[in-house]
């Protein structure tokens, strides 16, 4: 029987892939704390000894179906079509877990959730997966789950429930990684920094988003996922969170949805990235949460 042994909300923004010298230059002499946060996250992951990381990727936009990457192995040299001058030359080489991906499709069919496992070697990679894998120096097998853009919050929660059930039917120990930001409204192209340190929250797109993010972080630390989910229709989806919050909602759906009470441990400072709110938060997964999610 498989098990979810941990989960995290994790930032993947492109600035983290630049050189330390560059990050310190734009950081007014100090590095992004998200870099040190990756070391803290890796320590948590290593402690629970997973063999698979399931990454909910906010950049893999799909339409009409949730997709799960069922490839056995991926290797290549990534360049972003979004910002090729800034994010390029990222080599990646990681194994997949096709048996788990295909099991997700089986469970989805039983649950009448539109989801497919896709095994296509030429399927494009996205940096919300590659950056996380490379920054973690991950050796675990990787399964990427898409962010279906014509989904409601409930649809994301249902897909997460499917993923959770597939994991329980598998033989895998899994850590779930929700790869994306909280508030995700970019600053205008002509935006002038308010704070010399580019990562500082004063450089977020709005004070309202900053305030909303801090409130959300406090709720996550308290394990109030019920409150977070309740706020999605009228607040977080309208801000919006990155990928309409699909990364977080699928992760928490796998952990029992509103019934999940896992408290978050912040592993980094809350930082700006081109107006968006970024942070790493770890969630311990207790055995009772596994039982609750299965009910």
Automatic annotation (TrEMBL):
Q: GO molecular function terms here?
A: ferrous iron binding; oxidoreductase activity, acting on single donors with incorporation of molecular oxygen, incorporation of two atoms of oxygen
* A Pfam family of this chain: LigB
Annotated Extradiol ring-cleavage dioxygenase class III enzyme subunit B domain ranges read: 7-282
Can you say what this protein is called? Extradiol ring-cleavage dioxygenase class III enzyme subunit B domain-containing protein
């Amino acid at each position: 029987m498989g098990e979810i042994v941990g989960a995290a909300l994790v930032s993947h923004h492109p600035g983290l892939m630049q050189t330390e010298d560059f990050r310190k230059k734009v950081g007014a002499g100090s590095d992004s704390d998200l870099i040190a946060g990756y070391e803290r996250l890796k320590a948590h992951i290593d402690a629970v000894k997973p063999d698979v990381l399931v990454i909910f990727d906010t950049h893999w936009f799909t339409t009409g179906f949730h997709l799960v990457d069922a490839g056995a192995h991926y290797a290549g040299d990534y360049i972003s079509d979004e910002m090729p001058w800034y994010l390029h030359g990222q080599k990646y080489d990681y194994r997949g877990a096709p048996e788990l991906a295909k099991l997700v499709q089986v469970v989805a069919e039983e649950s009448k959730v539109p989801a497919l496992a896709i095994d296509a070697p030429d399927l494009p990679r996205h940096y919300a997966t590659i950056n996380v894998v490379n920054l973690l120096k991950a050796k675990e097998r990787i399964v990427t789950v898409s962010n279906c853009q014509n989904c409601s919050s409930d649809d994301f929660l249902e897909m997460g429930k499917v993923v959770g059930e597939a994991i329980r039917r598998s033989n895998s120990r899994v850590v779930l990684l929700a790869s994306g930001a909280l508030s995700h409204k970019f600053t205008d192209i002509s935006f002038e920094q308010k704070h010399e340190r580019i990562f500082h929250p004063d450089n977020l797109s709005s004070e309202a988003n900053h305030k909303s993010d801090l409130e959300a972080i406090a709720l996550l630390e308290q394990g109030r996922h019920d409150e977070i989910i309740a706020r999605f229709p009228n607040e977080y989806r309208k801000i919006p969170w990155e990928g309409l919050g699909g990364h977080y909602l699928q992760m928490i759906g796998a952990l029992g949805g509103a019934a999940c009470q896992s408290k978050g441990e912040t592993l980094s400072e809350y930082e700006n990235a081109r107006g968006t709110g970024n942070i790493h938060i770890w969630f311990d997964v207790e055995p009772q949460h596994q039982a609750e999610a299965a009910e």
